[in-house]
């Protein structure tokens, strides 16, 4: 049993074929062993009983045959009878003895064997037959009585015969068991091979199904348990293939639907972009002309009452310009036209400038604006960081009615967290993501333009993504908000000293500016402005008209200022290229546009021309004109 347990443990982790062989051979082995043992035991018992019976029969036969030979004293007869019985009954020995046990005669090799365990002996009494001796004539003269016990007949059978028979019987039983076990093993091996092959085939099919080959099927007949299993695998594969076809169809339909929705969203986005670009351009044109006329009028008029009106008009124009600039910032960010120039710079200097910029605005609303000192350096684009803080501080002041605004910083490892904290109205949790979208204003249902367009936080979010800086918002309704941005720390040793600006340059009095624009009002406004600056100006509606004027003057312009959108299939870039080809490739040029479309901004940026957006700030225009003209003339002067 211990062997069987050990065998079972060894085969418990083996293949199904080994298990089937054990299952088939173990019962067969036990049955064959039991049957062989039973029948061998019965055979040996019967053989031993037959041996005993043969010895008993031989002893009785001699006891019946020897009385007359013993009475007559015929020893030869006694010896002959013993030999005859020993030969017939295959006795080891046979002997006759008297009533006292003294041997009278005997035969056989077993007479002289000393070991009593070598033979099986059987003894029988020799008596006279049951006859009345007193009546017999032979004994009539005898007066004395005769004892009926004449002696003993003793025979012995050799036990070696039983041993040989037992050995032969066991050998035959073992051979029979081996033959039966071999036949059983061969049959079990064949059956296990067949079953293992079927299961292996099913396993291979399942493995290919697991590798997404749903076209494979089992090739087994559906009869029996294995056939049922194979049919189940085929049904499962069919169901999986059908399900995959359905999923693929759904995916195709969902993809087509998603593509349609994406195309619709892109068309809507492009339509929105075109609308804003067109609306911005069309509104900027008169605003640009108005700004030029206001600046020229302010330069020429010095009456106090009229100057007050002009300043009011200029303030309104500036407010509208700020709104348009917010749209421009969004467009430039979407177009990817803004480049990042990270440097090491001190934060405290920027905070002081912001405090000066917003101090009066906060005081006007009776709010306390505080800037915590932060003597630390940052590594980022200072202009873009300042733009983020400007929008966050302006937004905090705009939506805070009582209390104040705090601008603070805190170092966190290799990062610095800049936070703008206010005690304003707060933002509900479900609307904290939407405030970073365009034109979203939670507390301006009337769309009061004095509260902006709702683009400040959208600009902050886009600049944060452009810089790779994380923007965080924490807010609670009626308890204020905290906007934070994480900026990498800078190295104070790598801060570059600002270049000391020299005296502002002046536009040369003999300079000639060429202005190309299809709007007559803008041409008149620019003429009035540049005339107030005592700068020569040639205006034209197209490149051909500009060539006529320049050819008539016999003069090459010092700088070309062209509107981007012009009549026909031309634009400002093409006009500048055409005029440069005729009058010289080194003529500086500026592109002016009221278009805020991202693709327009990107195209002008890729062309490499300075870009000014309408409405122009006269001071910015004059500075750029001065810089480009002086830069172009510098080699000639030297």
Your description of this structure?
By secondary structure, this protein is of the alpha/beta class. It is built from 15 helices and 16 strands. It has a 5-stranded mixed sheet with strand order 6-8-9-11-10. It has a 5-stranded parallel sheet with strand order 13-12-14-15-16, sandwiched between helices. A 4-stranded antiparallel sheet has the order 2-1-4-3. Strand 15, helix 14 (598-607) and strand 16 form a beta-alpha-beta unit. Helix 6 (224-300) crosses helix 11 and helix 9 runs antiparallel to helix 10. The longest helix has 77 residues, at 224-300. The two termini are 114 Å apart. 26% of the residues are buried. The model is unreliable at 1-14, 132-146 and 445-450 (pLDDT under 50).
Q: Secondary-structure blueprint of this entry?
A:
Layout: H1 2-11, H2 16-65, H3 67-72, H4 75-88, E1 93-98, E2 103-107, E3 119-127, E4 149-158, H5 160-210, H6 224-300, H7 304-335, E5 343-346, H8 347-364, E6 368-371, E7 377-380, H9 382-398, E8 404-412, E9 415-422, H10 456-467, E10 471-475, E11 481-488, E12 512-516, H11 520-532, E13 536-540, H12 543-553, E14 559-563, H13 572-583, E15 589-593, H14 598-607, E16 611-613, H15 618-637
Parallel strand pairs: 6-8, 12-13, 12-14, 14-15, 15-16
Antiparallel strand pairs: 1-2, 1-4, 3-4, 5-7, 8-9, 9-11, 10-11
Helix pairs in contact: 2-4, 2-5, 5-6, 6-7, 6-11, 7-10, 7-14, 8-9, 9-10
């Amino acid at each position: 049993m211990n062997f069987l347990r050990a065998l079972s443990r060894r085969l418990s982790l083996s293949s199904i074929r080994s298990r089937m062989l054990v299952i088939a051979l173990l019962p067969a082995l036990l049955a064959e062993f039991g049957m062989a043992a039973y029948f061998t035991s019965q055979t040996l018992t019967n053989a031993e009983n037959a041996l005993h019976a043969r010895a008993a029969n031989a002893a009785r036969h001699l006891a019946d045959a020897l009385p007359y030979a013993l009475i007559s004293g015929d020893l030869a007869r006694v010896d002959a009878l013993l030999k005859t019985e020993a030969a017939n009954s295959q006795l080891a020995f046979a002997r006759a003895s008297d009533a006292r046990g003294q041997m009278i005669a005997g035969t056989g090799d077993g007479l002289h064997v000393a070991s009593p365990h070598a033979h099986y002996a059987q003894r029988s009494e020799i008596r006279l037959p049951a006859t009345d001796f007193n009546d017999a004539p032979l004994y009539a003269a005898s007066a004395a009585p005769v004892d009926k016990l004449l002696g003993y007949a003793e025979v012995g059978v050799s036990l070696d015969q039983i041993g040989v028979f037992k050995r032969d019987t066991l050998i035959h039983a073992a051979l029979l068991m081996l033959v039966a076990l071999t036949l059983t093993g061969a049959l079990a091996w064949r059956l296990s091979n067949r079953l293992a092959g079927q299961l292996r085939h099913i396993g291979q099919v399942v493995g290919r199904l697991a590798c997404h080959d749903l076209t494979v099927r089992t090739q087994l007949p559906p009869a029996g348990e294995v056939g049922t299993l194979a049919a189940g695998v085929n049904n499962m594969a069919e169901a999986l293939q059908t399900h995959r076809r359905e999923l693929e169809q759904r995916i195709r339909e969902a993809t087509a639907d998603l593509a349609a929705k994406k195309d619709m969203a892109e068309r809507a986005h492009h339509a929105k972009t075109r609308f804003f670009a067109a609306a911005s351009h069309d509104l900027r044109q008169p605003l640009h002309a108005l700004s030029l006329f206001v600046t020229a009028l302010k330069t020429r008029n010095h009456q106090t009452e009229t100057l007050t009106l002009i300043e009011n008009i200029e303030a309104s124009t500036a407010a509208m310009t700020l709104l348009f600039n917010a749209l421009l910032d969004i467009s430039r960010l979407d177009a990817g036209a803004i480049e990042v120039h990270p440097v090491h710079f001190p934060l405290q200097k920027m905070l002081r400038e912001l405090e000066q910029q917003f101090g009066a605005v906060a005081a006007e609303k009776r709010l306390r604006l505080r800037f915590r000192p932060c003597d630390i350096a940052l590594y980022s684009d200072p202009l873009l960081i300042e733009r983020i803080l400007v929008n966050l501080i302006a937004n905090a002041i705009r939506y805070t009615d009582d209390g104040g605004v705090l601008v603070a910083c805190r170092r966190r490892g290799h990062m610095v967290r800049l936070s703008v904290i206010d005690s304003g109205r707060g933002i509900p949790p479900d609307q904290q993501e939407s405030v970073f979208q365009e034109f979203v204003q939670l507390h301006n249902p009337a769309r009061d333009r004095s509260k902006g367009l709702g683009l400040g936080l959208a600009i902050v979010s886009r600049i944060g993504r452009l810089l790779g800086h994380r923007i965080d918002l924490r807010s609670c309704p009626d308890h204020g908000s905290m906007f934070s941005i994480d900026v990498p720390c800078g190295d104070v040793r790598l801060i570059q000293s600002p270049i000391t600006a020299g005296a502002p340059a002046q536009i040369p009095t003999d300079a000639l500016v060429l202005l190309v624009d299809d709007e007559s009002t803008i041409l008149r406004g620019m003429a009035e402005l540049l005339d107030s600056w005592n700068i020569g100006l040639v205006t034209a509606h197209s490149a051909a008209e500009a060539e006529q004027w320049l050819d008539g003057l016999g003069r090459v312009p010092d700088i070309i200022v062209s509107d981007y959108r012009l009549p026909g299939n031309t634009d400002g870039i093409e006009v500048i290229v055409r005029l440069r080809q005729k009058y010289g490739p080194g003529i500086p040029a500026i592109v002016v546009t009221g278009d805020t479309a991202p693709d327009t901004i990107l195209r002008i940026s890729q062309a490499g021309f300075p870009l000014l957006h309408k409405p122009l700030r006269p001071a910015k225009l004059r500075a750029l004109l001065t810089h480009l003209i002086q830069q172009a003339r510098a080699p000639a002067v030297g």
